[in-house]
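Researcher: Quick test of sequence recovery. Tokens follow.
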């Protein structure tokens, strides 16, 4: 199938898992927002590293270690280029978006946020961009404020000024909501943060894998994402921070690699980004993140965004024909490639378990975004999330599956 120049049939050949059967049916994977599937090239990069290249980085003077170091550092350069960072040193490899946010909360937050200061978040944050700030706020006596979400699933930016009664220090906002699908105007929010003397953190866990992201254009101070949601192995995540800020942050974890000189009672720190990469990192996985980026760049992020927009539009149109089905969040043009919904009279887990028997994997629960579910007055929802390897036919199979489940259960 070729849609918007994307040869999806050919691309699917690169993903061995998509050939699997589940309960005797073709496997249909609609949970890429939780984690993406991996192309052969990424899988074989990890295997090849352990077969032929395995050595620790930044310590050996022998050839194997030097090559491993070069490959690992090169992966940082690829990430920097991919998000248009102005300097490779602004890229820290961590294990996940969650770790990246915690790093900022500990290293930057504890030095820069104090009693009475304000941390501005939104009601649609993933727990990862909420709980670390709750912990910090309790510890230092800061206050959390929230940009509210309107009935269309968009942020109430008109009301934002009223929220700044104290000393605003940080605005931390998801770029693309993992529940509503909303793409937030993070550049406008970053401008607002800077006009008010605050720093801006963008949680890009759901955006960097699916659309072009340019940190210089967004002018954010921090940006975080997870490699495993963009074709790379687990244990890979990225913190981007402006060099002027990262250079002045205190270390997060102490240990090997992050130091320049160690005495018994005191130490000095390595240059950035290594100052923030203590101990042995996920080396093979980090190198494979670079390979995942090569793969995404070969396809083109703009094409991926357009194709997923097409799938979302089609799916929303088809889902709206199902009796009792309620979708949450904005219309297709204002959202990324995911849709959360409920069906009157059915518990989300019941539907997801029944679809599993048809080989279809969709998410049920609150997707680590409990507050937005509470705001919507629901305890859980179903969520389908796409990547470029999903097809129109798979959406058709899902709609048939949902329709027959609902009909089969009606009196
Ligand atoms: N931020 C957002 C917006 C997310 O969607 C997620 C993960 C994270 C942060 C955390 O990423 P991690 O790699 O550190 O776990 N979101 C989901 C999800 O929607 N379903 O499972 C994980």
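Model:
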């Amino acid at each position: 199938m070729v849609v918007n120049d994307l040869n999806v049939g050919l691309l699917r050949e690169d993903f061995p898992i998509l050939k699997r059967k589940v309960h005797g049916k073709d496997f249909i994977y609609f949970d890429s927002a939780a984690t993406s599937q991996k192309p052969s090239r990424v899988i074989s990069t990890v295997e090849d590293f352990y077969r032929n290249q395995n050595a620790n980085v930044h310590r050996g003077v022998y050839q194997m270690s030097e090559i491993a170091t070069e490959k690992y550092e090169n992966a940082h350069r690829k990430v920097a280029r991919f998000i248009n960072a102005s300097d490779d040193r602004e890229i820290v490899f961590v294990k996940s978006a969650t770790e990246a946010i915690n790093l900022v909360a500990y290293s930057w937050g504890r030095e820069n946020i104090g009693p009475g200061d304000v941390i501005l978040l939104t009601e649609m944050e993933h727990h990862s961009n909420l709980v670390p700030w709750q912990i910090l706020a309790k510890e230092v006596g800061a206050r959390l404020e929230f940009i509210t979400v309107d009935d269309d699933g968009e942020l109430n930016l008109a009301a934002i000024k009223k929220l700044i009664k104290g000393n605003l220090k940080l605005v931390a906002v998801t770029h693309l909501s993992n529940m509503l699908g909303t793409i937030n105007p993070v550049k406008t929010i970053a401008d607002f943060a800077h006009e008010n003397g605050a720093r801006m953190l963008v949680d890009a866990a759901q955006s960097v894998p699916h659309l072009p992201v340019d940190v210089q254009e967004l002018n954010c101070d921090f940006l975080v994402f997870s490699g495993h949601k963009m074709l790379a192995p687990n244990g890979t995540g990225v913190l981007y921070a402006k060099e002027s800020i990262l250079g002045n942050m205190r270390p997060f974890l102490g240990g090997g690699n992050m130091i320049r000189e160690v005495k018994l009672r005191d130490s000095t720190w390595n240059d950035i980004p290594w100052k923030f990469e203590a101990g042995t990192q996920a080396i093979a996985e980090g190198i494979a993140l670079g390979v995942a980026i090569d793969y995404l760049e070969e396809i083109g992020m703009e094409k991926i965004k357009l194709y997923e927009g097409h799938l979302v539009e089609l799916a929303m149109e088809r889902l709206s024909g199902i009796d009792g089905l309620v979708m949450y969040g904005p219309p297709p043009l204002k959202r990324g490639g995911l849709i959360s919904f409920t069906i009157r009279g059915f518990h989300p887990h019941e539907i997801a378990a029944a679809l599993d028997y048809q080989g279809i994997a969709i998410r049920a629960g609150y997707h680590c975004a409990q507050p937005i579910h509470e705001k919507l007055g629901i305890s859980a929802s179903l969520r389908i999330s796409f990547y470029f390897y999903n097809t129109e036919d798979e959406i058709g199979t899902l709609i048939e599956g949902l329709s027959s489940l609902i009909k089969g259960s009606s009196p």
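The chain has 13 helices and 19 strands.
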